[in-house]
Specification:
Elements (H helix, E strand, L loop, with lengths): L1 E3 L2 H13 L4 E6 L5 H13 L2 E6 L19 H10 L4 E3 L3 H4 L18 H4 L3 H16 L3 E5 L3 H13 L5 E5 L19 H22 L6 H12 L5 E9 L15 E9 L2 E9 L2
Helix pairs in contact: 6-7, 8-9
The structure holds pantoate.
Length: 283
């Protein structure tokens, strides 16, 4: 596995691979790799000639007062993880190389990036789409892999790719969970012992709500949201940012009768740690 830290070098390598008709799979990450990332990398190695993992803690997607500085950066461990799991390239550029002092260009997907997480993290998705577009131009992927855990991010990236005609397939992969149900996330390390013990309740509540909807015990969106919020607020130190039932394609929140398929989206703070999760409700 080759570690590439320079943007132009990575782009040269990718263009050369393309010229020799190799297919490229890109797994964009911010590092602190876990089994969620592993599922993306494994799928990429099965579906492409070459797999590139990018690790870049992207300052453009963190707001003031967020965890940019304390975000975990276990680079050596991540490097071994990528090597062991058959990545061909680890692309880890510096902030200076990605965003020169004179940097001025940003991509924003309107509307979709303004609600849910966008409301609580203004500018976050603008940072995500900008860096993802840059990573596409640098790595020239045929296929790129994202987890469903960041469901709104996934919808926004799909929209950007479609609207801007990026020649890349977005492959979404299911959320990987701890054995007790907590969605794997690089931010789970922030949870203290008690918070971690309680954190799995989020998934259990989302699952219970989905079940009530699927079995028609609840048919009205407002009632489902009320049930979820009351249950979530029983978790100690939990503050709910949003818990919504939405259309899985447009992400529009359902207000009256729930139409299936639907998706439950959740974000909240457990103590000081921001957690997100979501669950599918099938027909
Ligand atoms: O999901 C993430 O880790 C990040 O938002 C991404 C897509 C790598 C962009 O920085």
């Amino acid at each position: 596995m080759k570690v590439v830290k320079n943007v132009l070098e990575m782009q040269k390598i990718a263009l050369k691979l393309k010229l020799s008709c190799k297919t490229i799979g890109l797994i964009p990450t911010m590092g602190a790799l876990h089994e969620g990332h592993l599922s993306l990398l494994t799928r990429s190695t099965l579906e492409n000639d070459v797999s590139i993992v990018s690790i870049f803690v992207n300052p453009a997607q963190f707001g003031p007062g967020e965890d940019y500085l304390k975000y975990p950066r276990p680079f050596k461990k991540d490097q071994n993880f990528c090597k062991k799991n058959n990545a061909d390239y680890l692309f880890a550029p510096s902030v200076k190389d990605m965003y020169a002092e004179s940097y001025l260009t940003y991509i924003k997907v309107e509307k979709l990036s303004e609600f849910y997480c966008g409301k609580f993290r203004p500018g976050h998705f603008r940072g995500v789409t900008t860096v993802v577009a840059k990573l596409f131009n640098i790595s020239q992927p045929n296929n790129t892999y994202f987890g469903e855990k960041d469901f709104q991010q996934l919808a926004i990236i799909k929209k950007m790719v479609n609207d801007l005609n990026f020649p890349v397939n977005i492959i979404s992969c299911p959320t990987i969970r701890e054995t007790d149900g907590l969605a794997k996330s690089s931010r789970n390390v922030y949870l203290n012992h008690n918070e971690r013990k309680d954190a799995n309740k989020i998934h259990l509540i989302l699952k219970k709500t989905a079940n009530k909807i699927q079995t028609k015990q609840i048919t009205f969106a407002a009632k489902a949201v009320k049930f979820m919020k009351i249950s979530l607020l029983k978790i100690p130190k939990m503050s709910v940012q949003y818990a919504e039932i939405c259309d899985p394609f447009t992400l529009c929140s359902m207000k009256k009768n729930i139409k299936l398929p639907a998706r439950i989206l959740f974000a909240g703070l457990l103590g000081k740690t921001r957690l997100i999760d979501n669950i599918e409700i099938r027909k």
